[in-house]
Amino acid sequence: MTELLDNNLLIKKFKELSEKNECGLICYALPGYPNYDYTNKNNNDDYHDHNNTTLQIVSAMVEAGADIIELAIPFSDPIADGPIIQEASYQSLKAGTTPQMCLKIAQKIRTRYPQLPILVITYSNILFKLGLENFIKKSCESGINGFIIPDLSIEEADEYIKEASRLELATIFLASPNTNEIRLRSIASKSSGFLYLVSVYGTTGIRKSIDSYTIDTIKIVKKTLGKTIPIAVGFGISKPLHGKVMINAGADAIIAASALINIINKTKDNNHDNNNDDNRQMLEQIRYFVASMKKVCRKENRHSK
Amino acid sequence: MRIDYPIDGRFGKYGGKYIPETLVPAVEELESAYKRYKNDPEFQDELSYYLTNYAGRPTPLYFAKNLSEYVGGARIYLKREDLLHGGAHKTNNTLGQGLLAKRMGKKRIIAETGAGQHGVGTAMASAVLGLNAEIYMGAKDAERQKLNVFRMQLLGSKVHEVMSGSQTLKDAINEALRDWITNLQKTYYLIGSVVGPHPYPMMVRDFQSIIGQEIIQQTREISNTLPNVVVACVGGGSNAIGTFFPFVDHSEVLLYGVEAGGQGIHTGKHSATLSAGSQGILHGMLTYLLQDEFGQIVETHSISAGLDYPGVGPEHALLKDLKRAKYVECVDDDAINAFLVLSKLEGIIPALEPSHAVAYAMKLAKHMNRSENIVVTLSGRGDKDVEVVSEYLRMKEKKEK
Fold first, then answer.
1. What is the CATH number of the domain that holds A37?
2. Which of A91, B155, B225, B230 is at a distance of 20 to 30 A from A153, taking alpha carbons?
3. Category of B371 on φ-ψ map: left (φ > 0), alpha (ψ -120 to 50) or beta
4. ipTM
5. B106 to chain A nearest CA, in Å?
């Protein structure tokens, strides 16, 4: 594991969770979706914050129990994502979302929650185009604690790891069910904060049930890596029961993404005007979902299994 | 001294493997299978058998006498890949990869297609080799290339229309990659151009290099010399790299890659990735891309669906940087003009993609000596494009009225 100083909020968070015997809940938020008041002429920042849907969504998640926020920077060609996140990314980009805006939102989240671990999730080209060093520096200045780059394999990541480590930011790599043991160890050694375990052969999205190979994968990964690095499981975790099964298999944290976007979609369809009052129903349902997911993280005692 | 690219999966700094972790074991499996069969005489014999007896290789190198006289300059030769079974150079690659898939024990084939030529090539190879193919095609492309959709279906393939993003080739590749991630144990992803993660750009180049090898042999037979200039169109760049690769060491031969200038670079409606793009990462490779300042891939335009792609093969990016090949563009109007001229003068209806190369070759030939030779790779035939051209001419006539 790439060493990070203990003051990285992500490291602190997992330490704290482990002391409380809890599993972590990581929630995905996509700036600019379902809307973002970009055209607001009123430069009063308080007014702006109040109307910023993404900030409202993240707050709802955190207050309902989210431990870590995965803040997306949308990309036009998200090959690791299924239809739900693809479409939401497309809409967000169409509304004019830029990486700079996403980092600005990160800053606002950081101001509101000084201890919350915030990660950026995006694709290689965003980092490459903005310049690796520049992007990582700007992210650091915006209060970001680490990165998840689903299309960046460890072979192509040397410079990225160097730059991120220099600023004490976590590099979170992904492993999948077909990753062999040697490669898994290698991925873990280049990861910091946690290892992102892709639970399925497939893209992100909502799933009805969990395949047995997923459970086996979690057990094998956990057995191989022991307590060297926390394992967060993602892709297809659509309801608390899924989370519970993953945790029982050994996950240290669970990641919810498409399921959250799906809640936004459902409430969005009911409300044609995207003003504050109409966000209320959406935020309520997000709070409800996040709280129920966090509940299974608390109930399980991961050290007793 | 010749450098043998790729080195560690890279052409200079371009190429690489920027892919989700799930795909890493799959491309490694492919790489080791390809390495194994590349020099296996039995594999090469079988490929050669199909290329000769099924697909009709070698394709002729035809001296376009009427066109050369019309232009008045260098002698223009056409490498007739349009005569290859399937109607385009794509079959060279689909037979090669199809045979590889079979040896790897993967019976389910997936592929992307833009104009539909690679889809048709994949469908044919799959039919003859006893494989099951599913083809991803952007909904916009499926609409403008209906005939090819039907051909794929006739050949026994399933066509999935892709509704996401710009609904063109790049989105079809995205969707094929997602399918591969999901079904990789039983599935072989048969990429149609010199794009994607390593080893695809290398492997597809190798299968297409037969074009350039034959040109060298044929020009030597005709004139005991090599051509002065070689021209090919570049979308993803497979017919161009197949043409160029055997010439790279012959530094006296000038190489021209012609990209789609669309309605003109200044309008922003084009697909001239190497001429007007910047470096970036898409579909598993570092290369030149058409993208905005934030790294989002932009929509491209070309009259020809086959050139309508915002990326380009990484080896072309290297050849550009090394200045070994020159990359230029040709606008829609000029491509259509070349399409019409070649049809009338030579009785050959070219595909719109190589019409770009023909148009540029005509420009070059005019300023060359009559004793000099230009070879243009005519990468496909134009039956699929007659509707698009007739619509284009109708619109143009309307505008002029």
1. 3.20.20.70
2. A91
3. alpha
4. 0.95
5. 17
